[in-house]
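not sure who needs this but someone in the group chat was asking about Cell wall cysteine-rich protein from Aspergillus arachidicola so here u go. i didnt clean anything up, its just raw.
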Amino acid sequence: MAKSWRALLLTLWATQAFGQDAQIPLSSAGDSTAPSSALMGSRPLHREIKLEDIIVSSDDDGNLKCCPRGTVFNGNDCIFLDNPVCPEGTVLDGTLCVSVKPPSCPPGLEFNGHICVSTKPPNCPPGSVFDGTLCIAPSHPSCPPGYHYLDGKCVSDSAATCPPGFKLQHNTCTSSQSPQCPPGAHFDGKACIDVNPPSCPPGTTLVDNLCASEVKPSCPPGYRYGNNACVSIERPSCPPGTVFDGKVCRSDQQASCPPGSTLDRNICRSTTSPSCPPGSNFDGKLCSSSQSPSCPPEQTLSVNILKGKARCCMTGLTWDGSTCVLIPSDPSSCPPGSHYDGHKCVYHPTAEPSCPPGTVLKEDRCYASGAPSCPPGTTFDGEGCVTNESPSCPPGLRFNGQSCVASERPSCPPGTALSGQTCVSNTQPSCPPGTILTEGLCISSERPSCPLDRRWRIRFASSLITQNVRLVPLSMGKTVWQGSRQPALQIPCLTDRPA
């Protein structure tokens, strides 16, 4: 099979190489060397063969070979049959006999490749035309008297009406009378509100929709109530020689530094100034050379004070921070090497100022390339010599970066713990029986109640409901109150709905 494919590919290559006029037709069954006259007269001598024109053909022994459509495998080659195998008017196309004539349709119809279609467009009723899809009438749809056409519908010319005593408002028939509430209640625009607020048990008052005890939370003797806790009236205590400053026990003794140094904020600074190489002096930060930067002949050093930069300019020109300039009285009098740009003489420096050996140019001065040197046991910190030792404190104290403080934390009386600047009791403040401490108040376990003579409920707007709110069903003859703390907001009792 592989050999057959290679033979076929060689044939296709030869066909393209020699051109269609030089192609050799496939052999016939009668003569393997020349085509028959019948074949030459019934089909063209040359035909381009594409890959999709190749099909599998078998000989009488069942051997397979890939052959072009219209040929068969005779055991050796793909050949045309001498004798026609299809009826007259048809040709062999693979294994099918295909008519040489296309499908025909009745008069007035034509074949579109699939079905017979009319050559004339569809007919439309009088007064309408075919737009390629539908029959379109030039006039608009009509409606019965008293109606008009709007968006595909017949709309009445008359407006909607409401029963007597009602008026149309926002697509609803609204009564002209205001809602009526039972005696002792008033309408607030949404519901009937009882004129009296919810009531609380004796000894409690309504605070933020909860019943709070009139008695404040209490603490044992020696304590005061504050921030939901019992706070000791005694301040945290410190070791002798220290005082509590609100955070730590601070000593009144100053930290000390090694000999030859003094305390400077939180470091020990040497009293000896940093030393510099010969020919330079310490200017407070670096070793500045006693010699100024120098320039090539016929150029002078020019310093721009605003930018702190220096450059070598032609004599008579000054450095403005970007170039050397001179505003001349006569444009033709610019120094040699500079040019007039229409406003001033301009010279672009090509060389920077030079410094003595062992120094480098920084801004407008020459500085020693190394850092200032300090005595043994000290380090240069950019301002002076700092000892490698931290400030020290007396025994039992430590230096916290600002002062000497006790190594121990401030202590509190037994049963209390340090919290911020106070000693807080481990025991919670107490409340009267039947109440619990909640956000600084003794809250009753009983809920606020509403009048019993009617069916009442508590109104909760969606924006007012907070956590731990559980709404319960209403029942006739009972009152219901459900809520949680709402600062500066009082929820009233109200009827189920106005009459």
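also The chain has two helices and 44 strands. if thats useful
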